[in-house]
Amino acid sequence: MDRIRILGGTPLKGIIPIGGAKNAALTLMPACLLTAETLTLSNLPHLVDITTMANLLAQHGVGMAMNGDAALGGHTGRALELTAAEIVNTTAPYDLVRRMRASVLVLGPLLARCGQARVSLPGGCAIGTRPVDLHLKALEQMGARITLEEGYIAAEVNGRLKGAHIIFPQVTVGGTENILMAATLAEGETVIANAAREPEVADLAHCLVAMGARIEGIGTGTLRVQGVEALHGALYSVVPDRIETGSYAVAAAITRGDVELTGTRIDLMESVIKILRDCGVLVEPTARGIRVCAEGAEIVGTDIMTEPYPGFPTDMQAQLMALMATASGASMITETIFENRFMHVPELMRMGAKINVHGASAIVRGVPRLSGAQVMATDLRASVSLILAGLAAEGETVVNRVYHLDRGYERVEEKLAACGARIERFKGDAAE
Ligand code: UD1
């Protein structure tokens, strides 16, 4: 099993290219199920989760071809063609769904296109129970009959799904995406109220419009969809990854470095940038992306609360906690989206961080220097927070179980090493 070794203490300096958003790609890919024509996605990141989604789509009958030369243009020069000319199988099996919850995003498109779908229930995951009840209730409102049998969601509809007025009682990114995709081929109008406004949801909506869907209110909390009889192929470029951007911004800040993040956009992540600026980090737009500079800066503790977009993203909570662990003064970090998303806390404490958890809040008292230690990655964002802490710590940090990291970060060691970090991946038995 791979592990990552870091010798901390070097301020990062240089350029880090940012890829397409994992969470956008994971909903854009299943959108191909809505049409028999080809959907071509460019700026697709190269990640384990993307391969898992590709495997899932392949067993539904989607043909795929990768074009372009990665060596010339990086992933911006690569494009994946997805063609669901014929759907040969409407079951998403347990073995693939258990590896990645986003697999449930095939449910809406399969049901809309084929009138039936069987998708394994995702089950629990490291950061909480994460049910899909809101996806299912909304599909029922659109005329689907849904039963749960042998661990599977079995959904069917006679003819087309019917437009409906859906009011989500709680903001759900995946729920909004599933219903948005289903509504494009439904009969009549669907209104999705309290829709998620995340940039990845807007990216899906723009792609669906390019495929011939009729959607109003993109980027707002109310989406109006006029169903059409068929969608067509399109060429679409995946939005930059705001969480990858934010993670490397913290890498620059925590090492008191100066880094330019290219191929990304400041407007995707204003809440994160506000927090970084409040802490004393310089963040400014450049012609190619964003510059993050903390050279000689005193980082001061700031309170953070996770919220649906445009609030502060839960997917950046662990990374900011690593930064706050080295700030002067105290910060309170409150997690409102997922229960049990503080699993990085005991690992950060092994590195000398001073953190107390009270329910959904963590009080972080900054220390002048973290110290290197053996730590264990528990989920994707927790893993990267340990890498960030390791970059700032005195001495050697070894992060075990880095396979979580490969689900969401492409070539993380290469990108950091190019900016001067002393970091390497090696194989070896994890200290379990
Ligand atoms: C997506 C992101 C994930 C991010 C999360 C919140 C992808 C692939 N993943 O996950 O990285 O952390 O948004 O920004 O895009 N809920 C229910 N019932 C439901 C659906 C959700 O109770 O049917 C709850 C969840 O348990 C959670 C909250 O609603 O507490 C938000 O979940 P949701 O926005 O749906 O997250 P995901 O789409 O799973």
Silhouette: elongated
Bound molecules: uridine-diphosphate-N-acetylglucosamine
Mean pLDDT: 94
Radius of gyration: 22 Å
Strand content: 25-35%
Structural class: alpha/beta
Q: How are the strands of the largest sheet arranged?
A: 22-23-1-24
In short:
By secondary structure, the protein is an alpha/beta fold.
Structural write-up:
The model has no long low-confidence stretch (mean pLDDT 94). With 432 residues, the chain is α/β, with parallel strands linked by helices. It has 15 helices and 24 strands. Helix 11 runs parallel beside helix 13. The chain is elongated, with a radius of gyration of 22 Å. The structure holds uridine-diphosphate-N-acetylglucosamine (UD1). Uridine-diphosphate-N-acetylglucosamine binds next to helix 1, helix 6 and helix 7. The site of uridine-diphosphate-N-acetylglucosamine (UD1) has 22 residues, from helix 1, helix 6 and helix 7.
